[in-house]
Amino acid sequence: MQHKVVVVVGATGGIGSAVAHKLADAGASLVLAARDSSRLDALAGELSTTEVLSVPTDITDLQQVETLMQKTVGHFGQIDALVNAAGAGILKQWNKLEPADLDAMLDLNLRVVFTHLKQQRI
């Protein structure tokens, strides 16, 4: 992974963090994206063996995703791979679910990824 630039969305979650560590160990340069900037900074501090750019991003906001891509290309000049580790589940009993709960989960886990990938032509 030397000389490769990988964007990890959802980087501060369990899967995203584990992937970021593995990619750093393999020599990739990383762009870490998640909503919580303090957790992003903490993760970036753990990955001192590689070059890291942290960009607080809410992927449900198309403008923030565009900013993420612009900052990545502006800093590294390229994007070689994108890891989407962002996601959410519903922690309610099924009989207490509202349509808005399902819509929010599907927006984050499915629609956002499809829309952004289509727009970026990745």
Can you walk through the features of this model?
The chain is α/β, with parallel strands linked by helices and 122 residues long. Helix content is 48%, strand content 16%. It has 4 helices and 4 strands. The protein has a 4-stranded parallel beta sheet with strand order 3-2-1-4, sandwiched between helices.
Please state the structural category.
alpha/beta
Chain-averaged pLDDT: 88
Shape: globular
| Helical stretch tally | 4
Tell me the radius of gyration: 15 Å
Layout: helices, strands, pairs:
Layout: E1 5-9, H1 14-25, E2 29-34, H2 37-46, E3 52-56, H3 62-76, E4 81-84, H4 99-120
Parallel strand pairs: 1-2, 1-4, 2-3
Short characterization:
The chain is an alpha/beta fold and 122 residues long. The chain has helices spanning 14-25, 37-46, 62-76, 99-120; strands spanning 5-9, 29-34, 52-56, 81-84.
Keywords:
single chain, 122 residues, alpha/beta
